[in-house]
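Predict structure. Chain length: 309.
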Amino acid sequence: MSFILLIFLMPVLDILRYDSATKELIIFGQVWSLGLKEGFYADPSASGAFHIALQFFLKAILPWLAILLIFPLLGYLTGRLFCGWLCPEGTLFELADYLTLKLTGRRSLYSKSPNDPDTGKFGKLIYGALAFASAIIIPLLGGIALTGYFVAPKTIWNQIINWNFTLGVKAGIIGISIYMLTTSIFVRHTLCKFVCAAGLMQMLFGWISPLSLRLKMDIAKGKDCTDCKECEKACFMNVIPRKNKRDISCVNCGACIAACNKELGKGRGLFHYSIGEKCTAPQENCKNLTGISPYHLQKEQEGVKIKAL
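Prediction complete.
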């Protein structure tokens, strides 16, 4: 919620926005200008041209390269943690899943999945009203906030108060609102799995990284599993945690950890976060792990079975 609030406030606080009226990029209250034209007229010599080229690289190319590297770096170190904990669109999809589940008994509008959680039959009127309000208020607020990245927020709110919109503001608010409403109703996490570029970069680099944060199962505790399937029901990405393998759809949300600890008791759950073979959290789950890594323990058990045969 804090990250979503930051996204909404960045244009308001002039942290980052592009002013289409003045055609200026504003970063932390300052106009980000390349100054190429002024530099060219000031010194048209070869050394001046080199200085302009260097300035263009430092102020135009290098910042964009740094921005493009954010998600591969996040993926390499944290897997899809951003998707599970920070992504505003993912939060909207989870809300849509929750409300659909409360109203229909399933997460998806199209069909019931084996891992859909059980839900009560009461309160449908309240959840229906909440869903209706969310479908109107959230896309409109999102449309207003995100249009502020291209039109000064003061201008947008003045037009809203006076109910007199320019074409650009009207198109921005309506277009973004329709996109948010459509994706949250019909697309949801399919977009996360197959379309979102940021998610795909995290997925790819998290998959190949030996350091990436991951969710793992302690197979030595496998005998304690009650087969309640609560870990699967808690996963909105349709991952099966007990398979204990890297799944590109896993967003490291930790819902399976919470569900398993609720079923077996705090500190007795089968799942934990790890970096490589090192257990990192939750600490109560880490304390009960054996000294042998799950991978090597599995190999050892396989060897015992082969010898027995």
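Summary: Residues 291-297, 304-309 have pLDDT under 50 and may be disordered.
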